[in-house]
Amino acid sequence: MCEVLAVSESGYYRSLKPRPKQEQQQLLLVRIKDIIEEHEDNCNYGVQRIVLALSQIEITTSYSTVYRTMKKHGLLKKVKRHPNGITREDAAAQKSENLIQRDFSASAPNQKWLSDITEVPCSDGKLYLSAVLDCFNGEIVGLAMDDNMRKELCIQAFENACKARNARGMIYHSDRGSQFTSHTFREHLAKRNAIQSMSGTGRCYDNARMESFFATLKKEKLYKINTEHYPMAYVKSIIFRY
Q1: Got the DSSP string for 170-215?
Q2: Domain 112-241 is in which class?
Q3: What are the residue ranges spanned by the domains of the chain?
Q4: What pTM, to 2 d.p., does this model score?
Q5: 11 vs 238, residue with greater confidence
Q6: Which tens digit of pLDDT belongs to each residue from 148-157?
């Protein structure tokens, strides 16, 4: 056989035995497919949700590795993006520097938190959702919902996250919306020794990972049920379960 193939005997047998790295890649692919096939809603899972699901079964891997694996095997779903951009900047308010610089990685929990607001149309008005995402594993650590997007909504989401994680001293990144530049919101950050970071004006990619979460939530769940046909109370329950 080796003569026919014009290879050495050792080379032939090496080709038959999967290398450790190949085995790891194959195992990762199997686990990703298991997650996707576990439930009908999972077929729309993006990279971020897959990484989180893998961590829940004690498989630690990087965002880029999962992305490459899913792309190679045709498992990526194209997300239709809808611009968020509902917060409004207060031109007179003091702004904070961008400390994240689009580096959404973290080596431990509670180092970098991202936050933003999105709106969801319901049969009885607009529901506003403020969420806090931990860059370490993409987990939503804080959440608040109301029929308005005043600063109290963002404060509640932040405080919920701090209580859930008993956390202090994190970098807290958001856009330059008036909710986040308000004196009251900054007082809450100061009490937790949080360091504020802000995106540049009109630069949505400065908070892309947070935007990606909202896009995934809407694509995987909210667009499917057409929230405009349901009251806020029901839509809230759907979001909490997600």
Answers
A1: -EEEE--BHHHHSHHHHHHHHHTTPEEEEPPTT-GGGGHHHHHHHH
A2: alpha beta
A3: 2-72, 112-241
A4: 0.65
A5: 238
A6: 999 999 999 9
